[in-house]
């Protein structure tokens, strides 16, 4: 089973004993991916994913347990890519807890079909997670900018939103970019007379 060249990924395979590391690295290489095989301490995994521009990290966890969960917790928060856990046993409670801590998928064998499926799954889930995270982030920025405009101009929420939307349309800018500009520069804007929803102060951020 080989991936198309366009789907070729840089996959970090790390931790575990040397024999297991070699077996898993070979299986991933047979899929057609570029493998970075590395014995590494927990604190180094996140750095490696950044330095090596890794697309996916496959971490050999071995037995399920509290130590493994602590390791997963640290790796997930440091890694710059989605993480797959390679487990020696199937333990639903452990898997559920690992997922809660940020693992996007797990595998229990070096079977190539299972490995490729796990890689496909984590990439999709990682993208969905960041799209969702981005959507919440954009909403928070817009809400904060509306609050600034409501306080500064003495208008209600709908009027503040219309100010943002009107300015974005006139400048042919994204609404979130206008909102961010309001947040970044609101301390420099002069106070506006109460009730003037069309106050030109919005023209200042760009």
Brief sketch in words of this structure:
With 206 residues, the protein is an alpha/beta fold.
Please give a structural write-up.
Helices cover 55% and strands 12% of the residues. It is built from 7 helices and 5 strands. Residues 194-201 have low confidence and may be disordered. It is of the alpha/beta class and 206 residues long. The chain has a 5-stranded parallel sheet with strand order 2-1-3-4-5, sandwiched between helices.
Q: In which range does the helix fraction lie?
A: 40-55%
Cα distance, first to last residue?
51 Å
Indicate the proportion of strand residues: 5-15%
- Sequence stretches where pLDDT stays below 50 over 5 or more residues: 194-201
Assign the structural class, choosing from mainly alpha, mainly beta, alpha/beta, alpha+beta, or little secondary structure. alpha/beta
**What is the spatial order of strands in the main beta sheet?**
2-1-3-4-5
Look at the structure and give the mean pLDDT: 81
Query: Which sequence of SSEs, written as H and E, runs from N to C?
Result: EHEHEHEHEHHH
Please give the radius of gyration in angstroms. Answer: 24 Å
The number of helices is 7
Shape: elongated
What's the β-strand tally?
5
Give the oligomeric state: single chain
In this structure, how is the largest beta sheet organized?
5 strands, parallel
């Amino acid at each position: 089973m080989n991936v198309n060249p366009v789907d070729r990924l840089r996959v970090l395979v790390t931790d575990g004993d040397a024999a297991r590391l070699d077996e898993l690295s070979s299986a991933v290489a047979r899929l057609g991916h570029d493998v970075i095989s590395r014995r590494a301490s927990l604190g180094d995994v996140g750095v490696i994913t950044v330095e090596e521009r890794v697309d996916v990290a496959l971490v050999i966890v071995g037995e399920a347990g509290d130590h493994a969960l602590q390791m997963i917790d640290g790796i997930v928060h440091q890694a710059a890519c989605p993480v797959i856990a390679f487990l020696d046993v199937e333990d639903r409670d452990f898997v559920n807890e690992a997922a809660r801590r940020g693992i996007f998928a797990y595998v229990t064998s070096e079977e190539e079909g299972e490995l490729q499926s796990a890689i496909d799954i984590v990439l999709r889930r990682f993208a969905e997670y960041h799209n969702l995270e981005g959507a919440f982030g954009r909403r928070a920025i817009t809400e904060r900018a509306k609050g600034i405009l409501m306080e500064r101009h003495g208008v209600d929420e709908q009027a503040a939103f219309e100010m943002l939307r009107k300015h974005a349309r006139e400048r042919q800018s994204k609404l979130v970019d206008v909102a961010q500009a309001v947040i970044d520069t609101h301390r420099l804007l002069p106070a506006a007379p109460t009730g003037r929803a069309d106050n030109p102060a919005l023209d200042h951020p760009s």
